[in-house]
Amino acid sequence: MANPAGSQRGAYVQASLDELDEPLRATTFTVVDLETTGASAGSDAITEIGAVRVRGGQVLGEFQTLVDPGVGIAAFITVLTGITDAMVAGAPRIETVLPAFLEFARGSVLVAHNAPFDVGFLRAAAAATGCPWPAFPVVDTALLARRVLTRDEVPNCKLGTLAVFFHAETSPTHRALDDARATVDVLHGLFGRLGAVGVQSLPELRAYTARVSTAQRRKRRLADGLPAAPGVYVFRDARGQPLYVGTSGDLRARVRNYFVASETRSRMGEMVGLAERVDPIECAHALEAQVRELRLIAEHKPHYNQRSKFPERAVWLKLTAEPFPRLSIVRRVADDGGSYLGPLRSQQQAELVRDAIHDAVPLRQCGDRLSTRRQVRAACALAEMGRCAAPCAGGVSAPQYAQLAELVTASWLGDVRPLLAPLRQRLDELTARQRFEDAAVVRDRMAAVTRACARMQRLSALCAIKELIAARPDGAGGWELIVIKHGRMAAAEVAKRGAPPGPVIDAMAATADTVRPSAGPLRGAPAEEVECLLGWLERPGVRLVRASQPWAMPAFAAARERALLAVDADRRHEDPFADRRSLRPVPPPGSPRLDRW
Predict the structure, then answer these.
(1) pLDDT in tens, 3-44
(2) What are the residue numbers of the active site?
(3) Strand 58-66 relative to strand 109-112: parallel, antiparallel, unpaired?
(4) Cα(432)–Cα(436) distance, rounded to whole angstroms?
(5) Most buried of 109, 135, 263, 346 (most Cβ within 10 A)?
(6) Distance in angstroms (rounded) separating the CA atoms of residues 381 and 256
């Protein structure tokens, strides 16, 4: 399967091309494509191998076989590829197929579209079966297409798009041999483009594929004098404005990478062309560098950084401070007596959480100003449906309504079960009536409110601590040290091997920044910084040196609802057939065996 949804493309180097000097027309290529049970070479398996051996535009041979993966094939993979459990039931296992394929490809250059995926699976299969992996030179047609073609010619470099562009005789079908045949035509089309720019041999192909712009080469001097230490680097233009902020454990080595072939991002090439200097900021250790990077990106909002630039755009769900409170979606936390849940990752998530709470608790949804002394108006349709307690019509007293509001805020801060109980009942009712689509909506709302509460409870627990000092082994006999105040990094140091950490900790605590907390559950700390600190604190080996107060979570925190936290409401990543993926078809008694079909 050349490019399953959600797959990650790893770093990939054509290590051996420069050792071969024959012209492209005399080189033997084996174009390969795989179908698999999933996207991970470490945990998923190959279900089909297809390959075409070509030289000088002529097909020398083809290789195709189904492979029994030893596990069930997920339904969505079957929909994508057409390969079923029944089809692979009688197929050979990979330990039999792989040696035959390696013999077929021996002495050639391996070609694949998105080669890190296919070659990664083949290498993983070789390691699992104890089969030696030959040192194949590798060509990636996807990478080559990105170098040869422009966006005006093709909108993307997917195999289907390139096959149409180059008028391939075979259309990709997500079957291994068809995709390999289509890749052959794409490879020949790309070679035709390369001939026009003087690329005639494999060494020239490598140089062209990994080319570095002249502007990038000229800027190599910007890395001179940078320390080989952890920290943050800031690329600046001629006016001193930050273009890009990054972090590394070795500033000199990381910045040098921007001027060599290993940096393939086109926007980074553009950024380097504008840069006139690089400012390094040395840090005690990697955690300090990560936090300072987040702060610099949020402060300067560099054009070429794509994440963490707008923490102020976080969304919060607010329970207003009124006689009859209501839920409101806001962009900032104010010291106005209201209660807040967040930060939420998007407006969509905030609306999902709000709807879940309205399903569970009959809070009013109107924006009217209500009086505690008299009826304001007649009840609305929501009250008639039982979705609102109708304080506007005197349907509930102020103390009774306050109990509803307290249930909501108590669920945000501690025990989420009272908020989930009405939703669970509604989910069970819909499921019993086989209204599965409506039940899925309720389930997703339950998951959204649980995730929101779990995240806020986790972050706010650290932000509530006035001062916390922690240490972690640095791997060289010393200690990485950090002071955290109300969820923000206040100081960072390293106690090197042989030096007593006690005096270093005392000096660090004495000179730590002063942090004045503000309103809200996070006391004004940026959520990304708090999550960065939590990630470090939760690593193995970390020790809490001292804390001004206990670091604790509620006894019935939302994080205990693991089943709901595992629900992914984003349909792009949800597998509706996950409960079937381990099942194999079993023929009824007296029917033909599947392996004989």
Answers:
(1) 443 333 344 444 344 334 578 888 999 999 999 999 888 889
(2) 174
(3) unpaired
(4) 9
(5) 109
(6) 66
Distance, CA of 289 to CA of 536 (rounded, Å): 12
How does DSSP assign 485-534, residue by residue? ETTEEEEEEEE-TTS-HHHHHHHHHHTPPP----SSTTTT--HHHHHHHH
| Percent helix, percent strand, percent coil in the chain, to nearest 5 | 40, 15, 40
**Dihedral sign computed on CA atoms, order 493, 497, 499, 503:** positive
Amino acid at 259: F
What CA–CA distances, in Å, run from 15 to 135, 137, 210, 294, 441?
9, 7, 11, 35, 50
Q: What is the DSSP letter of 230?
A: S
Residue type, 389: A
pTM, whole model, 2 decimals?
Answer: 0.62
Please give the Cα distance from 284 to 482 (Å, whole number): 10
d(CA 264, CA 302): 20
Over its C-alpha atoms, the chain yields an Rg (Å, rounded) of 30
pLDDT by residue (tens digit) across 548-581?
999 998 888 888 888 888 886 444 444 444 444 4
Instruction: List the one residue out of 453, 454, 456, 449 whose CA is nearest residue 569.
Output: 449
Amino acid at 421: A
